[in-house]
Fold this protein.
Amino acid sequence: MNRFTEAAAEIAHQGWTVMSDFLPPETIAALRGEAQQLWLQDEFRKAGTGRLGGYAIRPDIRSDHIHWLDDQSPTEAQSLYRATIEELRQEMNRQLFLSLSTYEAHFAVYPAGAFYQKHLDRFNNSDERTISCSFYLNENWREEYGGQLRLYLPNSYVDVLPTAGTCVLFRSDTFFHEVLPATETRFSLTGWFRRRSLRLV
């Protein structure tokens, strides 16, 4: 059983999984460098909540910043990330019959003290987001820095440190989660596997 087959099996069983060493160290370092450079160049924007007419900047709910990946002109490291994501998408479709068709992703930066309160990733007026994917870029991250992803389970929760190479996958419509404040700047790649909408227009 390869690692993506195992990840899909865990999602089928419990709805979430945590993978380590998702990408080679040199690719993680390249992605981290890109995110840090974009942050220094002021290429991130404040993240908001909701979509379309309901979109709003709500610093009381989330205080991170984001930079969407450009699918038309990816860097070499982003292409390697995308190729791995595509392999994972195909395996989840084979194992879970989710009909995942596309993937969207952005860099996210949480400056010291930033947070994202408890929420679901699927919008009330859109059902395309199916599997959420958080991939971490932070080298030598320590537990005392904070910044954990807190994933709420039916009767408990699990905290995941945003350590470089760690990738968390979970069902977008099922698992409430939050990002706890950190004492250091925290970088990640956050994405969503999407399906075609099942809603009738």
